[in-house]
Amino acid sequence: MIAAAAALAGLLTYGMLAKGAGSTFNEAVVSGKRLPAPAARLPMLGGPVDRNTTLDAYRGKVVVLNLWASWCGPCKDELPLLEATHKKLASDGGVVVGINTKDLIDGGLGAVREYGLTFPSLRDGDGAYARALEHTGVPETFVLDRQGRIAAIRRFPIDQEWLDAVLPPLLAEPA
Amino acid sequence: MRRLATLLAALVTAAAVLITSPGSALAQPAPKTSLPDVEDEVMCVECGTALNLSQAAVADQMRGFIKSEIAKGRSKDEIKASLASQFGDVVLADPPRRGFNLAVYIVPPLVALLALGGIAVAARRWRRAGPQPEPVAAPALADADAQRLDRDMAAYDL
User: Which residues in chain B land under pLDDT 70?
Assistant: First the structure.
């Protein structure tokens, strides 16, 4: 009985602490620390579901990692900017990578066709990777440095001004 | 006679066109399930509620997908399997009986069994303890006290 009460008290304490902890990544970015992005082993949107890609494939590049879904209006609004950014970054050692999260495959592919997206998107159907990034909704954007660490976070739609402030210093860093 | 044969041929052709044209209702396979039948067994992946209770944008998208699958003649199980292949098992209101999900099916009956066992053990202990002793009768009043009580009672008009 005492053990059960202690376990319950422990669970409640953990719940309160976990709820009040906030986002680890946000706090790190605010304090100037760069935490490694969670490891991703996800299939490509439109690719074979049994062949996974990892973010390590983009190590050495500055990665604009964008969580999006085709049912999300603000996500679709920023797709053209992300596509333009991807094309611009190609010559500077950068890349845009989408994480198509909690979306129907046909919905995601429909958006790729509609907006003529050429940047790669990984499938996160059950939202597990979005949760690993402590997401609060979509769209959200994370910028990873060349070592795969999170250097900047935007938990709402991005704009050109933000990209202009965040990307140049990271692109100037050595690989 | 020739006119009749021509008319029959035209009717057969028209019927064939009607049956095989993509827009024809006759070309649609018979539905094997309905939206409400699937909706209450599927979760909205963004909001974590049953799909039939959700008004989220993703829920509308999922409902559209279910309707299109019903129109293709898919059964409820086929539609649920298709959703699970895209969203994982989290999309199913009843998790499949495998792996850690088994806990959902095993733990509640186990707890009920343990509770019943506890009650049985407690009942046996109570029974072993034997019958409760008869309450001890209060000692009889002394004569003087009984007389005083009678006097006091007589003073009241009961």
Answer: 1-27, 98, 100-101, 158
Q: Is residue B132 part of a domain?
A: no
Same domain, B60 and B72: yes
Stated pTM of the model: 0.72
Closest residue on chain A to B62 (Cα):
A104
Q: Which domain holds residue A137?
A: 34-172
What is the Cα–Cα distance from B39 to A79, expressed in whole angstroms? Answer: 31
Contacts of A103 in chain B (CB under 8 A): 58, 61
What pLDDT, in 10s, does the model give residues B115-128? 999 999 999 888 88
> Do A108 and A24 fall into the same domain?
no
Which of A72, A73, A125 is opposite residue B87, by nearest beta carbon? A125
Two structure tokens written together for A1 = 């009985």
Closest CA to A157 of A90, A93, A76, A91: A76
The reply to whether residue A70 touches residue B46, judged by beta carbons under 8 angstroms, is no
Put simply, whether A107 touches B (Cβ < 8 Å) is yes
How far does A50 lie from chain B, in Å, by closest CA? Answer: 12
Tell whether B34 and B85 lie within a shared domain.
yes
Position of tokens 């210093």? A169
